[in-house]
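Posting here for the record, re: calcium ion.
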Amino acid sequence: MGQLWLCLLALAALFGLAAPQAEVTAQIQADPLAPTLYHQLMLFCKVTGDPGPQIFLWQKEGSRNPLQKGPNNILLFPSFNKTHLGTYTCTATGSLGTAVATYSLWVNDLLHKVFVFPQETKVSHVLVRAKLEQPLQNFTVCLQSYTDLTRPYSLFSYATKAQDNEILLFKPKPGEYRFYVGGKFITFSVPGSTVESEHVCASWESATGIVRFWFNEKPWPRKGLQRGYTVGAEGVIVLGQEQDAFGGGFDAQQSFVGEISSVYMWDTGISTSGVRMAMHNSPHKAPIFGWRNFPYEIVGEVYLKP
Ligand SMILES: *[C@@H]1O[C@H](CO)[C@@H](O)[C@H](O)[C@H]1NC(C)=O
Ligand SMILES: *[C@@H]1O[C@H](CO)[C@@H](O)[C@H](O)[C@H]1NC(C)=O
Ligand SMILES: [Ca+2]
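Prediction output follows.
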């Protein structure tokens, strides 16, 4: 009887060893989500898949010495300031394995600021010259807008020399968004009877052509276009006007009047929680363009409001 018991134990042990282990993953979360200068900021390293004790190694990209190593999963900034901007890595090691998470904490001079386009013109706009490392197979664009316009207008216009509507977020009328990739578009119907601030994210993936669209954090049914297309790496982003030529070809009748804020663009897809974080000006993935890090030019009359 005792032998059988031992045998069973041995079998159980063997089985346990052979069973696939749950994947250990880590994620860094900030509290508060949007850091404020000279206030406390905490980065949490959250591990899933390993309940056991862990050692957390905190590092900052570009600095040679580790910031912190030990059982503490919190990196604390008692008074956050600009010297703390950068990319942080947490390496969590436990008995079930090691997981690594990264987090970008970047310039937030313009955090919570809003671009105001005061009136209809064919001149005023915000311009960003984009020179990406490589053409885009995937991307996401998010922004918030507030306007009482009922005529057509452009929200985000990315033109290349070859295609003026390379990426375009356009509102032909209240209650409808048009999303262009490489000159082709699909439409999304949204509620549109009252004047309210609207947050949208649109993402596209070349491999499938799938477009995802979020309106005020809510995912809309997936649609698709331009499967296999590649978005050009050298472009001009314009807010406030619609480009019909590279960096120009504006039409006052498609200009934006009102407020635009929280503009971000990534070279990846996004999750619904990522959309929510973008909406609160606290994206957890470093965007390729964002309020906080794009060098932009203001042409004509555009105001920046806190
Ligand atoms: C930022 O905080 C660090 C401490 O983490 C401090 O040494 C430094 O002087 C601060 N810099 C500014 C500009 O406040
Ligand atoms: C684009 O997204 C797909 C699916 O998420 C991924 O497999 C692919 O590696 C991505 N391509 C690039 C260039 O990032
Ligand atoms: Ca155009």
